[in-house]
């Protein structure tokens, strides 16, 4: 197999973060730092992104049809990857993003300031199927967030 795999990939993700005024916002970002190499020789090379070393907790959640959580912050910075179904995230600035399988969100809206009954984000299922989500939660919390920090 050839080691030529085309152009370096670019993978989109949504970043839910807290701005300097304590308001949660969402920005679409792209991971672009990939290196073509084998995960374990003799396996063929594949594009690998930067490794992030942090203790992590991994879990799968199932949000029932019609489920909607109250306004809340993510308990820790976490990747949320829909496996099936659809779900939404609404940030305090009014941005609402709907995601399904193949889309990625990074929730990092800690330390928001409550405004008009909103703090953090609102999330819930979309459609007539449960939303099955894989959550990869960092053990380390950050004091401040930088939008698109994985780009």
Could you walk me through the main structural features you see in this protein, from its secondary elements to its overall organization?
With 151 residues, this protein is mainly beta. The chain has a single domain, classed as Sandwich (Jelly Rolls). The chain has no helices and 11 strands. A 6-stranded mixed β-sheet has the order 2-1-9-6-11-5, with no helix packed on it. A 3-stranded antiparallel β-sheet has the order 8-7-10, with no helix packed on it. The chain has a two-stranded antiparallel ribbon with strand order 3-4. A hairpin with an 8-residue loop joins strand 3 and strand 4. It is globular. It starts with 10 loop residues before the first strand and ends in a 13-residue tail after the last strand. This is Cupin domain-containing protein. It comes from Aureimonas endophytica.
CATH architecture grouping: Sandwich
Reported by name, the CATH topology is Jelly Rolls
Largest sheet: 6 strands, mixed
**Fraction of residues in helix:** under 10%
As a whole number of angstroms, the C-alpha radius of gyration is: 17 Å
Order of adjacent strands in the largest pleated sheet: 2-1-9-6-11-5
How many distinct folded domains? 1
Q: Helical segment tally? A: 0
What structural class do the secondary elements suggest? mainly beta
Low-confidence stretches: none
SSE succession: EEEEEEEEEEE
For this entry, what is the oligomeric state of its chains? single chain
Please tell me the overall pLDDT: 91
Q: What is the highest CATH level, the class?
A: Mainly Beta
Rounded to the nearest angstrom, the distance between the terminal CA atoms is 29 Å
CATH superfamily: Jelly Rolls
- Shape designation: globular
Percentage beta strand = 35-45%
InterPro entries: RmlC_Cupin_sf
Protein name: Cupin domain-containing protein
Organism: Aureimonas endophytica
């Amino acid at each position: 197999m050839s080691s030529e795999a085309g152009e370096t990939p670019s993978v989109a993700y949504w970043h839910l973060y807290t701005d300097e005024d304590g308001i949660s916002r969402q920005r679409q970002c792209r991971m672009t730092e990939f290196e073509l190499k084998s995960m374990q020789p003799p396996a063929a090379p594949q594009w690998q992104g930067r490794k992030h070393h942090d203790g992590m907790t991994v879990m799968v959640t199932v949000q029932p049809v019609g489920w909607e959580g109250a306004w809340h912050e993510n308990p820790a910075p976490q990747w949320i990857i829909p496996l099936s179904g659809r779900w939404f995230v609404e940030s305090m600035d009014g941005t609402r993003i709907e995601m399904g399988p193949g889309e990625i969100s990074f929730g990092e809206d800690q330390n928001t300031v409550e405004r008009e009954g909103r703090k953090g984000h609102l999330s819930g299922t979309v459609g007539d199927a449960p939303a099955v989500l894989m959550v990869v939660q960092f053990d380390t919390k950050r004091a401040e967030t930088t939008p698109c920090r994985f780009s």
